[in-house]
């Protein structure tokens, strides 16, 4: 019995690791596609793609996956024409949601996104009603020993790049900046030999919506996860800000 129990535990742990790895690869793949679509396939002329490839390699993402994601962004997969779209809406507690899409079939994607909203009893909104609450930002995440706030501030100051904020906590640091500062920050971090685990252009809320109810917070998390699992979704942004108490309760589950 003990052997069976140990085997079951190992299987469950492996499944959890595989699921986590799958989500990481999915996120990296989407950034590779967007980077290639925005700036082309030449990594010497496309710092965003160069940074995305570096992050993918650091996560041990298979090269075939990397190349497939890049080709998708360049429109080299089966002649499919990709179209960028944005869906807007509201979820629990009046929290605003933006869903960025890259799809080769607008009707199919629209139906699937609408279904995810409906299943969660959330509301889709008209174009522009939610987007005005967000701004595009360059975002970099550094983890481990290099997540040193003072060091990152020094690097950015010396490089003369425009940065909105730099913070670090519990082994993770984040840099946010205007999107036009992306290339300069990539170059500054590369020259300082700083390994970046995430680098992308995201949409961040200008004003946050506090969430104090753990049940609503859980619903929001589940809804965002369901959206992110849809293949055409490139990114999900909300203005939800969970309180420390809510975060603690979620972490304990």
Which features would summarize this protein structure in a list?
Alpha-Beta Plaits; 25% strand; 3 domains; four-stranded antiparallel sheet; 253 residues; 10 strands
β-strand amount: 15-25%
- CA distance, first residue to last residue: 28 Å
Using only C-alpha atoms, the radius of gyration works out to 19 Å
How many distinct helices?
Answer: 8
Give a short account of the largest sheet. Answer: 4 strands, antiparallel
Q: Pairing-aware structural class of the strands and helices?
A: alpha+beta
Elements, N to C (H/E): HHHEEHEEHEEHEEHEEH
Total count of domains = 3
**What is the topology, as strand order, of the major beta sheet?**
3-1-2-9
**Quantity of strands, as a count:** 10
Arithmetic mean of pLDDT = 88
Going by CATH, the homologous superfamily of the largest domain would be: YebC, transcriptional regulation domain
Helix content: 40-55%
- CATH names the topology of the largest domain as Alpha-Beta Plaits
Low-confidence stretches: 1-19
Instruction: Indicate the CATH class of the largest domain.
Output: Alpha Beta
């Amino acid at each position: 019995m003990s052997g069976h129990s140990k085997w079951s535990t190992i299987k469950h742990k492996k499944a959890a690791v595989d699921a986590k790895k799958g989500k990481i690869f999915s996120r990296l793949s989407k950034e590779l596609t967007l980077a290639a679509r925005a700036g082309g396939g030449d990594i010497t002329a496309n710092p965003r793609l160069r940074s995305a490839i570096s992050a993918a390699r650091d996560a041990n993402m298979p090269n075939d996956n990397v190349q497939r994601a890049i080709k998708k962004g360049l429109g080299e997969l089966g002649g499919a024409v990709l179209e960028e779209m944005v869906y807007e809406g509201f979820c629990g507690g009046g929290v605003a949601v933006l869903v960025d899409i890259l799809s080769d079939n607008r009707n199919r994607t629209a139906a699937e996104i609408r279904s995810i909203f409906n299943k969660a009893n959330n509301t889709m909104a008209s174009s522009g009603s939610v987007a005005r609450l967000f701004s595009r930002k360059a975002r970099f995440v550094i983890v481990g020993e290099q997540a040193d706030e003072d060091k990152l501030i020094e690097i950015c100051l010396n490089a003369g790049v425009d940065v909105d904020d730099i913070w670090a906590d519990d082994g993770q640091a984040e840099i946010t900046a205007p999107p036009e500062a992306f290339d300069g920050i990539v170059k500054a971090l590369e020259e300082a030999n700083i390994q970046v685990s995430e680098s992308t252009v995201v949409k961040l809320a200008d004003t946050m919506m506090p969430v104090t109810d753990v049940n609503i917070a859980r619903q929001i998390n589940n809804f965002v996860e369901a959206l992110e699992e849809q293949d055409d979704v490139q990114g999900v942004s909300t203005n939800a800000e969970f309180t420390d108490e809510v975060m603690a309760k979620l972490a304990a589950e």
